[in-house]
Write a structure and sequence with these properties.
This protein has three domains: 32 residues; 210 residues, Metal-dependent hydrolases (TIM Barrel); 94 residues, no CATH class. Helix content is 46%, strand content 10%. Helix 3 links the parallel strand 1 and strand 2. Helix 1 packs antiparallel against helix 2, helix 3 runs parallel beside helix 4 and helix 14 packs across helix 16.
């Protein structure tokens, strides 16, 4: 029986890849236009269900929606894995969508060991990105490091569950039985664990008794716990049990996460771009922004990631908006491409930022240009090992600003259908590459 568009979009999130691919194939054959008349923006930081997406989106589903909603470039970023890369790139080719793929983790920054950077309450610890990967299974040492990241995350989560189980007594979960089935490739996150606890409690208690149970365990009132597994309850479980001060929390140290230099080595060896992440400029570490940028760039940082939506309140001139403007000005002066996105790993996160808002419209060009740079890098690196940080780029451009101009032009003019024309790019000059278009 022929499936409806709504049924096919649900199938895009099936854990079986063949089911997802079949659904996308059927959707593209339907008489449904997914070519918006105007570009509405970019989102280079959407988590998928390979780490955690609050709406359950697979890479294929995010690609489908990105095309339908008019994103100039779309990018996925998952914690500790590159599992979504191949299907996301394939979906981009089917849909004519410009794509890029990243990875996110936390790292230890020795120079800031006594200062909080962007991981609240955790001195020396920083969220960190690599973007523009071209292979879901890198070779050599990079492959070993990627496997190590996955195993370290699994070990941390196993210990977290052990500690929280003790506190929740009557609601116990098992990683293999209760958590792993919530993710398609075994890469569980704290948010999966929260969902597993909520669902386990729902098996044991009626809604009324469940609300009372969680209110007592989370030191909250019953009105704050939207049982069985609403977003308020999941956020409370994470905040009260897994974050600083909670029973499951252990203060991280220099051995909990990879060091910044090691993470950047992995990113570079895999042919991607190390990306500095920025919170909101209010932490002790980010208030020392010149020193922080210097340390990050000395280790290989070549772009900066911002989550705009958490950095301003519409119509309000406050310190966060001032800090946002300041970091963008600094990034411009340093030639750091600015990469933005909305994460989508928490209920309520936007699909795409409002680039026409009064607060963000002055920076719309910066944000879209940053996306074009990463897309162009991804194509050149995949087709000819001639990406943004390649030996070819080092020889071809005298300044980072000249390099940025080239990658913006290439990323804006290149169509997905013509990507394979750049397989000989490493043998050409920058101007000759552009002529290939």
């Amino acid at each position: 029986m022929k499936r409806t568009k709504e049924q096919l979009e649900i199938a895009l999130d099936d854990f079986n890849l063949e089911v997802r691919k079949s659904a996308l194939s059927e959707l593209t054959k339907m008489e449904v236009s997914i070519s918006p008349k105007k570009v509405v923006g970019v989102n280079l930081h959407a988590h998928t269900f390979f780490s955690y997406n609050a709406y359950g989106y697979s890479p294929l589903h995010f690609a489908w929606l990105a095309k339908a909603r008019g994103l100039a470039v779309a990018g996925i970023v998952d914690f500790d894995v590159l599992d979504g890369l191949d299907e996301f790139v394939a979906a981009g080719r089917v849909l004519g969508l410009k794509t890029c793929t990243g990875i996110e983790s936390r790292v230890f920054v020795p120079e800031f060991a006594d200062r909080v950077i962007n991981s609240p309450g955790e001195p020396g610890v920083s969220y960190h990105l690599g973007i523009g990967f071209t292979d879901s299974v890198p070779t050599g040492w990079a492959c070993e490091f990627l496997a190590k990241m996955r195993s370290m995350a699994a070990a941390r989560n196993g210990e977290l569950v052990r500690r929280v189980n003790v506190v929740l007594d009557s609601v116990q979960i098992d990683m293999e039985q209760d958590v792993m089935p919530l993710t398609p490739s075994g890469n569980a996150t704290e948010r999966h664990i929260c969902l597993a606890y909520a669902r386990k409690a729902a098996e044991k208690f009626s809604d009324d008794k469940g609300a009372a149970y969680w209110a007592s365990k989370l030191d909250s009132n019953a009105g704050e716990v939207d049982v069985p597994d609403g977003p308020m309850l999941l956020d409370l479980i994470r905040a009260k049990l897994m974050k600083r001060g909670g029973a499951g929390y252990v203060q991280p140290g220099k051995d909990t996460f990879p060091e910044l230099a090691e993470m950047n080595r992995f990113i570079l060896e895999a042919g991607a771009i190390p990306v500095i992440t920025w919170l909101d400029g209010t932490t002790e570490g980010e208030q020392e922004i010149d020193e922080l940028l210097s340390v990050e760039m000395a280790s290989g940082g070549a772009a900066i990631n911002i989550i705009p939506d958490r950095n301003f309140t519409a119509g309000v001139e406050d310190v966060k908006l001032s800090n946002l403007k300041d970091i963008i000005v600094r990034a411009r002066k340093l030639g750091l491409p600015i990469l933005v996105g909305t994460e989508m790993n928490k209920d309520g996160n936007l699909f795409v930022d409002d680039f026409e808002s009064a607060e963000l419209s002055p920076f719309k060009e910066d944000f879209i240009n940053g996306a074009y740079i990463v897309y162009a890098h991804s194509v050149l690196q995949r087709e000819a090992s001639a990406g943004y940080l390649s030996e070819w780029a080092k020889k071809e451009f005298d300044t980072v600003f000249a390099k940025n101009d080239f990658f913006v032009e290439l990323g804006s003019k290149l169509s997905v259908e013509k990507e394979s024309k750049l397989s000989c790019a490493a043998e050409l000059t920058a101007s000759e590459v552009l002529k290939k278009l």
